[in-house]
Amino acid sequence: MNVANTQIQMRKGLLEFCVLHIISRGEVYTSDLIDELTLAQMIVVEGTLYPLLNRLKSASLVEYRWVESESGPPRKYYSITEEGKDFLSTLSETWNSLVNSTLAITAKN
Fold first, then answer.
1. Where are the beta strands (DSSP E) in 35-105?
2. What is the mean pLDDT for each group of 10 consecutive residues in the chain (109 residues)?
3. Distances (CA, A) of 83 to 6, 41, 42, 54, 55
4. Among 11, 26, 75, 84, which has the minimal tally of Cβ within 10 Å of its Cβ?
5. Cα–Cα dist 72/74, whole Å
6. For residue range 87-98, what is the model confidence (pLDDT) as tens digits?
7. What is the distance between the alpha carbons of residues 23 and 75, in angstroms, rounded to a whole number?
């Protein structure tokens, strides 16, 4: 088995949760999402993020608005919907349960 592939899959599995969490803090531009995810070593490229944002929008978990830019084309800013907040709350509960379960297993010698 290739450990790098497993690591990538683990990150991909958490990406939706992390993106929703970032957006839940306030309206955000895509490049800001990429910067934060990259800084956190969740290694994301735009080609991965845009389809995810489109899926979240189609599921009514996020919405966006266009903002005119003085230095180029208009920018799309994302915010979380009420349905997205409920979804994120459920994901947070799942995450906490998974962390506790994983620690219970990995803490044993």
1. 62-69, 72-80
2. 87 93 97 92 82 97 94 93 98 96 94
3. 31, 28, 25, 15, 14
4. 26
5. 7
6. 999 999 999 999
7. 15
Tally of CB atoms within 10 A around 90 = 9
C-alpha separations of 84 from 20, 49, 81, 90, 97 in Å = 8, 17, 5, 10, 20
φ, ψ of residue 15 to 5 degrees: the values are -60, -45
Q: What CA–CA distance (Å, rounded) separates 96 from 109?
A: 22
22's tokens: 């970032």
Q: Quick check: helix, strand or coil at residue 39?
A: helix
pLDDT digits over 52-69, tens only?
Answer: 999 999 999 999 999 998
By the 10 Å C-beta count (0-12 exposed, 13-18 middle, 19+ buried), 71 is classed as exposed
For 85-88, the CB contacts below 8 A with 24+ separation are 85/24, 87/20, 87/59, 87/61, 88/17, 88/20, 88/21, 88/24, 88/61
